[in-house]
Amino acid sequence: MEVAKIENVTRVFKVGKVETQALRGVNLSIESGEFTALVGPSGSGKTTLLQLIGCLDLPSAGQVYINGKNVSKLNRSQRADMRRGALGFIFQFFALIPTLTAYENIEMPLFLTGKSAAERRQRVTELLEAVSLSDRANNRPDQMSGGQQQRVAIARALATNPALILADEPTANLDTANGQQVMETMTRLNKETGVTFVFATHDPRVIHYARRVVTLRDGLVVANQ
């Protein structure tokens, strides 16, 4: 089953009279359960493609489908609903709320989707255990290592049982040991839960974790293995 489909997508950014073509006629399908890396040099279009799949941006031309829905035909509110329900996000700089504990950061998406207190408690407890951070539930981000913060971010991304999790350079701010632990956590959760992961990276240390590698260069898919 396809969770994401990109059809002949172009994305052009305009600054004054200068146009930059970030993506040029990209076609790509992501099947349920995949663990896929988007690779390529800086400026190749990886982040732009993730933003389009994540309903954070719209294509200049072409179509983006998430769970069979054409994102371009959704209004702003409907795209926000799509992000909250069907998608999870993991960012390079963790993007945790600094004043909240690990527990509260993971709980936040469940608040936004209207889960009861009992449902939130059960889900957050499960996720803390899944990322081996039950003992850090009451720690704020500044009381955790970078690797621990990224594992909290992974748990938060999983909170609403999304069909697809998008990760932009998830190990870029981590040392080798913490980067390895984060990738092993993502790999294990992909296998255990069946949730689809697509992550952008230029780090050769983590590419081998992917079961599929999509290479972009100059806004084009040049390899898909």
Number of domains: 1
User: How many DSSP E strands?
Assistant: 10
Structural class: alpha/beta
CATH-derived architecture: 3-Layer(aba) Sandwich
Keywords:
7 helices; Rossmann fold; alpha/beta; 4-stranded antiparallel β-sheet; 225 residues; globular
Structure description:
The radius of gyration is 17 Å and the shape is globular. The longest helix is centred in the last third of the chain and has 18 residues, at 176-193. The chain has helices at residues 46-53, 76-86, 102-112, 117-130, 146-158, 176-193, 204-207, and strands spanning 2-15, 18-31, 35-39, 61-66, 69-70, 87-90, 164-168, 196-201, 212-217, 220-224. Helix 3 packs across helix 4 (117-130) and helix 4 (117-130) crosses helix 5. With 225 residues, it is of the alpha/beta class. It has a single domain (2-224), classed as 3-Layer(aba) Sandwich (Rossmann fold).
Strand and helix map with partners:
Layout lengths: L1 E14 L2 E14 L3 E5 L6 H8 L7 E6 L2 E2 L5 H11 E4 L11 H11 L4 H14 L15 H13 L5 E5 L7 H18 L2 E6 L2 H4 L4 E6 L2 E5 L1
Helix pairs in contact: 3-4, 3-5, 4-5, 5-6
Summarize the structure.
With 225 residues, the chain is of the alpha/beta class. It contains 7 helices and 10 strands.
